[in-house]
Every structure is written in structure tokens, then in C-alpha cells.
């Protein structure tokens, strides 16, 4: 009989990344102000080419987007371990539906997650782009 050592490191990365993605987009769609808890003072968001740094500035940018309600639909999620302090890089593609709009918008988003001393993760880097054409 083979010994089962539980999920592989790759499986664990995938589980953490999936849980983060589900949590992030749930908060974005349902309670956007609470996204600030996922960022740190050193966090950097690049949103459609605009660079924003720090928890308060990122929270302000996300709360001032020109729409109140949207729904994200995730098509793909890829993740890799990052040698940077045991981090995880997560790449997401999908679409989002704005309230009152007929067509969905395609997007791509990349996160670099860094572990905290409390055993969770925060978003160090976040790059978001709409995909046109």
C-alpha cells in the first residue's frame, strides 16, 4: 500500500489561490470597501495603467470606480509559487457584468500574494486590465 501524504505542494497552492480568488471577487461584487483588508501599506495596484500604492489609496480607487454593482465570472485561474517570501502569483481571466449593461467586459488580473505572520496572505501586487477587441 502506498502512503498518502495528503495534498501535494502544488495542490495546496491551488487551494490557497482558489480560496483567495473566490474571496476577492465575492468582496468586490458584494462589499467592495472591505477589500482594503486584503492590502498592505506596501501594496501596489496597477489599474488600467494607473499605479496606486498603499491600503488607503487602493481602497479609495476601488470605491470610486464609476459603477456600484458588478458580477465577476472567472474563466481561468493559474498560480505559481513565488520565491519572494513564500508568496503565490495568481493570474485570473474572466468577464464582468456591470449592472444595466447588456455585454460583459473581458478582463485579466494578476496578484502576488505574500504570507503574513498570522498565517494568511495579503496582496503585494495587483495588476488589472480590461481586454478589448
From TrEMBL:
GO CC annotation terms, alphabetical: cytoplasm; nuclear envelope
Highest taxon listed in the record's lineage: Eukaryota
UniProt GO BP: mRNA transport; protein import into nucleus
InterPro entries, A to Z: NTF2 (IPR045875), NTF2-like_dom_sf (IPR032710), NTF2_dom (IPR002075), Nuclear_transport_factor_2_euk (IPR018222)
Pfam family, one: NTF2
Main location: cytoplasm
Entry keyword set: Cytoplasm, Nucleus, Protein transport, Transport
Record's subcellular location: Cytoplasm; Nucleus
Domain NTF2: 16-130
Statement: the UniProt record of this protein carries the keyword Transport: yes
General function of this protein: Has a role in nuclear-cytoplasmic transport of proteins and mRNAs.
Protein name as annotated: NTF2-related export protein
Source organism of the structure: Aristolochia fimbriata (White veined hardy Dutchman's pipe vine)
Amino acid at each position: 500500500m502506498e502512503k498518502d501524504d495528503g495534498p501535494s505542494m502544488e495542490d495546496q497552492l491551488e487551494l490557497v489561490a482558489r480560496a483567495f480568488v473566490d474571496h476577492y471577487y465575492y468582496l468586490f461584487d458584494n462589499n467592495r470597501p472591505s477589500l482594503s483588508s486584503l492590502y498592505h501599506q506596501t501594496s501596489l495596484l496597477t489599474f488600467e495603467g494607473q499605479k496606486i500604492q498603499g491600503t488607503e489609496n487602493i481602497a479609495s480607487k476601488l470605491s470610486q470606480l464609476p459603477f456600484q454593482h458588478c458580477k465577476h465570472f472567472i474563466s481561468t485561474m493559474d498560480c505559481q509559487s513565488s520565491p519572494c517570501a513564500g508568496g503565490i502569483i495568481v493570474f485570473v481571466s474572466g468577464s464582468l457584468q456591470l449592472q444595466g449593461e447588456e455585454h460583459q467586459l473581458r478582463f485579466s488580473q494578476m496578484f502576488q500574494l505574500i504570507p503574513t505572520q498570522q498565517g494568511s496572505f495579503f496582496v503585494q501586487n495587483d495588476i488589472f486590465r480590461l481586454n478589448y477587441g
